[in-house]
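ok so i was messing around last nite and threw this chain in just to see what happens. nothing serious, just curious
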Amino acid sequence: MGSVRARAAAGATVVVALALIAAGTAVLLVLQGNLQNQAGLQAEVAAREVASQIATGTPYDKLDLPDGDDHPVVVAADDGRVLAVGEDVRAVDGKRVAKTPQGAGSVAPPAGDEDDEGDDEERGLKPGEVDDDIHHRDGTADVDGTVADYRFAAVEAKDTSGEQATVRAGSPLAAERDAVGSVRDAMLIGLPLLLVVVAGVTWLVTRRALRPVEGIRGEMAAITASTDLSRRVPVPSSKDEIGRLARTTNETLAALESSVERQRRFVADASHELRSPIASLRTQLEVGVAHPELLDVPGAVEDTVRLQRLAADLLLLARLDAGERPGGARVDLAAMVREESSQRVADRIPVRLGELAGGEVAGSRGQLGRVLTNLLDNAQRHAVSSVRVAVVREGEWTVLRVEDDGPGVPESERERIFERFVRLDDARARDDGGAGLGLAIARDVAVRHGGSLAVRAGSVFELRLPVAG
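result:
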C-alpha cells in the first residue's frame, strides 16, 4: 500500500475492528451472564415457593408445583427418594425421575453441588424452616419428551414432621441463548458493514485532508521542471500542519531564489571585476611585445597583484559559502593587532594603536587576520590623516574597533556596504579602490565566528566576538 490514504484507511479499519471485536465480546459475556443470573433468580423463586409449602406442612402429593415446561421441579429426600416431581418431568441430567413410594430405592439425581454432603448438620434446620443457602448449576431436563437446557436452583427445607427434603427447580436457558445468539448474529452482520463504512469515511476524509499536499507536490514538480524559483506553492486557508508546511515551503523557495540570485550576481560581478585587470594586463603585454620600450612593468605588476588579491577573495568567499567552519584555536586579538600593524610599513597613513585589552577568542587566526587587514585597508582608502585600532573587553565580548577620520559612511549605506561588490561612489572614483569584497568577507567571517561586524558613529567599524570560554 504505497498510498497514505490506503494505509490510513487500513489502519483505521484494523483499529476499529479490534475495538469492536473486544467490545462485542465483552457485551456478549455481560449479556450472557445477566441472562443466566436472571434465569437462576427465576429458578430460585420457584424452588423457594415449593420449599415454603413443604415447611408449612403441605403434603408432598398436594404440593402446587409449577408447569414443567417453565420450571421443572423435583423434590427429593435425603436418601434419594423422589417425593414430588413436576408435571411431565421425566428426567434430569439424563437420569429418570419418578415419584417413589415410601421405602423404595433412590432413583433421583444427585444433589446440585458436590460439596452439599454434610451441610445438613452444619445448617441444623428445624422443622418448618427453609435453608437460606441456594445452590445453582446448569443441566438438562426431559419435559414431555423434549430435552432442553435449564439453570437449576436447589434449596433445602424441613417439613413439620422433621423430614428434610431438597427442592430443585429449573428455569429454561433457551431464551437466554436465543438472545445471545441474536446479538451475536447481529454483530457478525453489522461488523463488516461498519468496517466498510469506517474504511470509506477514512479514505474520503484522508483524501480531503491530503488534497493540499497533492497541490504542494504538483507545484513543486512544476517548479523543478521549469526551474522558475519565483513560483510559490498554494497555501491553504487552514492553520494546521499542512498550512504551516506550505508556508515553510514558500519560505524555503524564497531563500533558494535569493541564494540563486546572489550567486548569479556574484558570477556576473566577478566576471566584470576580473575582466578589467585581465584586459589591462593583456594590453600592456601586447604593447610590450610590439614595443618593448613602451612596456609598463610597474603597471603590469600592479594589475597582477590586483588580480591575485581578487582571486584570493573569490576563493575565500567560495569556501565560506560552502560552509567552511573556523578552527577552534585560541586567538589573542591584542597580539594579532600588534603583529599585523607592525607589518604595514607601506601604508599611506601610519596606524596608531589605542587600548589593547587582553582577551582570547576562539576561531581561525588566518581568517580573523584577514578581517583586520580588510578593515585597515578600508580605513586607509578613506582616512584623511588618522587610522586608529583598539581592542576592549565588554563583558563576555571582545571588541575590536578600527576608526579613521574620513567622511564616514552615510547612515543609509551602513548595511549596503557589507554586500558583495558594492562600492560607494567616492570609493569608485579612487584608482586604488578595491573590488567591493573586503567588507563582505569581513562580515561573513565575523558571523561564522559567532560575532558581528557593524559601522558605529560614521567611520568606526566594530568587530564583536565572544570571549573564548
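not much to say yet. The CA atoms of residues 124 and 131 lie 9 Å apart.
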